[in-house]
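--- STAGE predict ---
source: upstream dedup step, 1 unique chain passed
mode: sequence only
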Amino acid sequence: MILYIFSILLLIFLAPLMPSFMKMVKMYLLYKKPISIFQGYRDFSKLLSKEIIISKETSAITRIAPFLVLSPLLLTLFFLPPIVSGEYYVSFVDAFTITGLISLSTFFLMLLGLDSASSFGGLGSSREAFISALVEPAMILTLFSVSMMAKNLGIGQAGINLSLHFPSSHIASFIFAGISFFILLIAENGRIPVDNPETHLELTMVHEAMILDLSGFYLLLIESAGSIKFIIFASIFVSLFVPFGLNLPIVSAILVFIAKLFIVAIAVALLEVNIAKLRLFKVPNLLGIAIVFAFLSLITFYVLGA
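--- STAGE serialize ---
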């Protein structure tokens, strides 16, 4: 149980590092002076000292929604696969529960954007709903496919089974599912080419449009939720699709897990530097690819057994 609590606290601690690290890598690749990897903590400390300003046009939803955006994601941290062998984990949580909690957080974020009574908020919420409607089915299919290969529907138990018995006989299905989930990781976290987290141009922004009217502690909650969502997706990805290191000694297993998270962050940063943001109506093509790969994973597993 101590390792279980420690792993959750570790993920919460690492969450603000990931966006800063990705931005630092991108600035290195663009030959710019990089920011500090601890910039996320500095930004959070600044937001704590900022005044909370709320428009008169908003309702009580604006005061409640930031907490409701963060809460399901914090709850999801308790259901992730273990990072160390012998660690306590929740074995009965499946793909539907994980996807449902993440979708619940997204729902309250969209509600927050609509409650801002601004055209930007409604624009961002409608775009987020448009993207989420394509992401969620693909995510359920992908996690379900991997769970079938791991011979257990529980995400935690699936991670352990994959680390003990890598599905080498189903490598094609496994690769298809990995490609699908990586696309979903990018889309659900608002990274390029689906969204650009560093822009405030109304023609392109999705996530930023919903939180333009927030400040101070409320903005801190939303930014924390975004960081935690990325660490959730990265943790699921490395636990299910890079399932090695779990049976190492405790310290080594933790270090290997952290290294895998940073490798995922580097991969996302490299992708963002080398491709441009898609037009909004081109995004379904990308997410359609994720759905196709998820279906291919299931079909290849059941029909061909590969």
